[in-house]
């Protein structure tokens, strides 16, 4: 054999060896990755080859599986009262994938979770079709309906989060405008067009405003400012007059900030009276005196600057580090560069209602197998003792006075002790360009007073598409009735 032929033979041998090595690598080293890749058609066909487990609310399934024809996918997902529960379930679509609980607990719902291995093996031996397990939520169906119906009635973009302060259970999680996950659960062209239409809408129905959107919290943040001032010794007596004048001159600035009520209601008044009438001057002054570091420290004790997992991811609310004195003062009234999710303000309210103890919020009570056996059971878990019990009780006293005698009076419930705080948040490049956001936070104590507070609520309303005068945009007018309805629904249990 001459030299050129030997070179070609060696080269071909090297190529063959490389091909064998690559095939071996793909077959063994990357086997699991490729077998389970979301773009693998076989994986997709298998995912829709059998009925899926269900998401449970109040003992009843709010999801289902429907037999299909004319496609490789044998089943598709169905949703009961889809728009009301979409912020909880998310969607599970043959074309669009999975989100929220449908995505986070896909392994349990599909039956592919490692903890269901024995069940899958037995099914293979007996010839049974693979079955999925169930995800049992903490949602209270009546509270969820009250939250969703309240937002729909307003025809507003908004969100409601209700928590059980004692445990951290999520009792309601609503976001509007919403969508029906059933309408694009399949793979047809019409369903694809429907998803694109929803995705392009300016009012963002696919967005989860309760967990994934951040906004300035406005005056609802004053409850945290009051807690910080008490915790760090800036205030010792909530009934003692302050030296905060109105209109208030921001530190190192010529800007003066007034109030929505007459100056006589707010000039140099106590923190308790300042909460009652939502006096900006009192809380701007408190935040300045507490200082940026201790304000941020207190905010972080309640969960700010960290993502929360319920187990669905909630974006982090923000109390920034690098603030000057006027910016720090503005955070005292929930403005400036401060941002929050509705979930976060519900956590702040719940923590104060629970004597300063912030519980980790959670949305899933139990994961169970196809045979209804318990795979995983949630247990309440404390996030932080954010403030002392004494501080929390003083803030409760102020919030309860605000409901009885102040701006939060629309949240009153006969025979029940309720604490609340209104909020109106300016936003936009020029804060007067945009219609303000309306907020309301509240909690209710058990009748009789010996069961703690079973519910805390945060309501957020973006009135940009509402046909009402700017003067009617206020947390007490728009948010308080919704919060009251949610609290009543929980207390009825």
From TrEMBL:
Transmembrane segments annotated in the record for this chain: none
Domain Penicillin-binding protein transpeptidase: 158-488
Any single Gene Ontology cellular-component annotation: plasma membrane
GO biological process, one term: cell wall organization
Top-level taxonomic group: Bacteria
A single MF term (Gene Ontology): penicillin binding
Domain Penicillin binding protein A dimerisation, residue spans: 52-135
Signal peptide positions (record): none
SUPFAM superfamilies, alphabetized: beta-lactamase/transpeptidase-like
Name this polypeptide is given: Penicillin-binding protein
